[in-house]
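User: My instructor asked us to take a sequence, write out its structure as tokens, and then describe one feature of it. I'm not sure where to start. Here is the sequence I was given:
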Amino acid sequence: MKNKYNPSEVETKWQKVWEEKKVYKPDLKKAEKPFYNLMMFPYPSAEGLHAGNMYAFVGADIFGRYMRMKGHSVFEPIGLDGFGIHSENYALKIGKNPMDQAKISQENFYNQLHSIGNGYDWDRTVETYDPNYYKWTQWLFIQMFKKGLAVKKKSPVNFCPSCKTVLADEQVIDGKCERCDTIVEKKDLEQWFFKITDYADRLLSNIPKLNWSEKVKIAQTNWIGKSEGMTVKFRVEKLKKEIEVFTTRPDTLYGTTFLVLSPEHRLVNFLLESKEIKDYVDRAVKKSDIERQAEGKEKTGVFTGVYAINPVNNEEIPIYIADYVLSSYGTGAIMAVPAHDTRDYEFAKKYNVGIKQVIAGENVSKEAYVGHGKIINSEDLNGLFYPKDKEKVINILSEKGIGKKEVHFHLRDWLISRQRYWGPPIPIIYCQKCGAVAVPEKDLPVKLPYIENYKPIGTGKSPLATHPEFYNTKCPECNGEATRETDVSDTFLDSAWYFLRYTSTEVKDKIFEKEIIKKWLPVDMYIGGAEHSVLHLLYSRFMTMFLKDLGLIDFEEPYKRFFAHGLLIKEGAKMSKSKGNVITPDKYIAKFGADTMRCYLMFLGQFSQGGDFYDTGLEGMNRFLKRIWVFSNSVLLTDKEEDREVLRMINKTIKEVSKDIERLSYNTVIAKLMEFYNFAVDKKSLGKDTLEAFLRLLAPFAPHLTEELYQSKISSAKDFSSIHSNLWPSYEEKHLVLNEFLVVVQVNGKVRDTLKIKSKDSEDQKTVERSAKGSKKIESYLKDKKLIKTVYIKGKIINFVTD
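Assistant: Let's start with the prediction itself. The structure tokens for your sequence are:
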């Protein structure tokens, strides 16, 4: 073998062999120890695969390779989440039809994915824009429609003026579009929703049982946002109507001194009696939620001139309209208790509204008291304590008929309509006689047509609405004239079920093979970004529960384990196109090889935390792999029994590396492999078993280099047997025991000497003392001194304390 390490030659060679020998293609029907290893569905970005993608994909692949070497049949599929705004916006930017650009992006992305050396099953790819895939996305929509979970309704929705489409609540981050950062507007539009709220309790109650990264579980818990409280109705005599309020603090009902309506509240139309009110409402509804909720923002509002009746004491209280109340919270109206709520307090002070304290604590003349305490000034509730007696408060008020106990959720129905071109057409037909009718399943897929004018038009309609040849059709029920829905569905619907389709890509007449699903699902290990905590991860949980309810699967959580990887940054800044610091791995792979790039990315920091990419770091990692190459080719390999020191070191490395890979602590794995190399590099000979074990430990990180060295230096099999199909090395505890310890000898806490103590002697303090006192160095420090006490930490330190 040549001593020069040529990664390009080695990597191309083994990628071809692995593909030919089907090393990464398990038999899904016959596999005995199935392990489904999955990376979060990638979308083909404008630049193709970038270093951040590779960071995530390699981290997932390493775990899959480890489990394969642990004896599992590992299924690690890959595909493209290619529908949606991300891909469409790039196509618009360069002036290409998204359907044409998808083919170009697919070829480029898959070429790059081949180059990084991951163990993908390339026979089972999934692309969401393939009609054979989105046929089943449309089928799922129809099942939702049949069960009453897909509904069309008019509602205030988030509209991105830049992307010219509506967005789900989960796609609005801090009041901005999660894709383009444009401030989102509110519009009243008729849209399709999935009633994910019907599953809110179930989605929430399962969270504690999930073996997922804790920050993701917390994010989902908060987003679902279960609140227990009461619904209370306040009469408005002048209007002969009632204002319904949901409150989590019924204990403060007697402290309610005014009501506040959101500018979008249904009663506001009955209260527009002055130009001042009309002008205020017009200005407020144009503001984004983030503007209206900003911390430190001065509270604004307008008095309606109308009063409501507080049901607990029949007091008249003024009704205001204020933009700090959102229509999406509760009922869009709040009972304001300024004594015990900071925002209400600021508003009351500004507009000179009464403040009534009903929880004993700090004096409320200067600020609201928001702590716990005894209920006061509240008639029958006096003497009870908040929050301990909250249930008693609810019972007392319920018995009086003042309100009823209710549970509310922050979670809202999933808005899935998109007024864009690049997505699966929603499979609904509108007939004047029959209403909204599902496309018959036999007629699926409803194919997305190739059109020239694919740009979004911003009118609340999709570009498909300008194509009568697409939308004019016949009603499947009465055969009368009808029209198709022209909106397409949200890309997050495409990715809510893709992990199921991977197992059945060859199946044409059903969504998946139930028996294969039963064998391989739920996904054993799922790795992805925490930024999708309340997007993809929540939606895929909902879809899985729905499929279980249909009787198609027997589990209701899609992923047994979810691990959230960290974020790759570039020299201190998050990688982004706007900063111009997005890194594509191609040039680094061409120069140093994929194995160097893989190892370097994993060495940057804890996989759960991310790391900072510096070009210079790649050179150091490349030198390390070159040294392994040279050492493996130059060291004399023997079949003799290793000496005790080498056995202890390789067994220690196997134990620690195995433990670290289990917890995905990849940077420490590489550090320990470096430590072993530094220990072994000066040895002229090494046991063949020892080098083999070391190469196996390195194999998930540097799959090409280790395969080459294993085949040339270790394997003697006549038929090809990949290092990646061989068993993970095991360690023996007996080799981990040290024969001797290096004990530090201190006098009054200062190090004065070190001693080599045999393992058996280290157990006995008196033996160690004798050896230490026998040292000439220590003897001089103890001479003429009174020994007060001796402190011994077994096998580590002995300290003599003198006067």
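For the description part of your assignment, you could build on this observation: The longest helix spans residues 615-634. Try explaining in your own words what that tells you about the chain.
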